[in-house]
Specification:
The chain is an alpha+beta fold and 139 residues long. It is 40% helix and 20% strand. It binds adenosine-3',5'-cyclic-monophosphate.
C-alpha cells in the first residue's frame, strides 16, 4: 500500500554535498519527496528525536554528530515506502551494507552513516510529526 516514511540526510552527507545524489536514489526507487526542509538541529531537538537511544553508550556521539551541521529532514511517499527506503539505505553499519545501497556508497562509519529512515509505521508517524505539521506534507 502507499505509505509515508520519515527520512533524514545527515550532516556528514550534507557537508559533502551529497543531498542531490541521495534524493536521486530515493526518487529512482519510486519514492516521492512530499515534504522537505533543511535544519541545523539544536542539542535539544537531537536529544528529543533520538530519545529512544538515550541510555546507549553512543548517545553523546550521536547527538554531537547530528548537531555538527545541517540535516535535510523529509517525508517520502510511495508503495511500501518504509521498507523500500530501508532497502535502499542499507544496513546501519556501512561495513554490513549491501552493494548499491546509499550507506554502502556514501557512509563514513556507523555514527556518520549519511541517512536515517523510520523502521515501522508507528515510528514513521511519530518522526514525521516531530518535524512537520500536517500542512507541510504535500502528497
Ligand atoms: P540511525 O538510523 O539514525 O539511528 C540511530 C543512530 O545511532 C544510527 O543510525 C547510527 O548512526 C547511530 N549508531 C548506532 N550504533 C552506533 C554505534 N555503535 N556508535 C555510534 N553511533 C551509532
Amino acid at each position: 500500500s502507499i505509505e509515508r516514511t520519515f527520512s533524514m540526510i545527515k550532516p556528514d552527507a550534507t557537508r559533502r554535498n551529497l543531498t542531490g545524489a541521495i534524493i536521486k536514489i530515493m526518487e529512482e526507487a519510486g519514492l516521492t519527496v512530499v515534504a522537505s526542509k533543511r535544519v541545523w538541529m539544536s542539542r535539544r531537538e537531537a536529544e528529543g528525536f533520538y530519545a529512544v537511544h538515550k541510555e546507549r553508550p553512543f548517545f553523546g556521539e550521536l547527538v554531537e554528530s547530528m548537531t555538527s551541521g545541517p540535516t535535510v529532514v523529509q517525508v517520502l511517499q510511495g508503495e511500501n515506502a518504509i521498507a523500500r527506503n530501508r532497502e535502499i539505505m542499507g544496513a546501519t553499519n556501512p561495513a554490513d551494507a549491501a552493494e548499491g545501497t546509499i550507506r554502502k556508497e556514501f557512509a563514513l562509519s556507523i555514527g556518520e552513516n549519511s541517512v536515517h529512515g523510520s523502521d515501522a509505521p508507528e515510528t514513521a508517524a511519530q518522526e514525521i510529526a516531530y518535524w512537520f505539521s500536517e500542512t507541510e506534507v504535500v502528497g
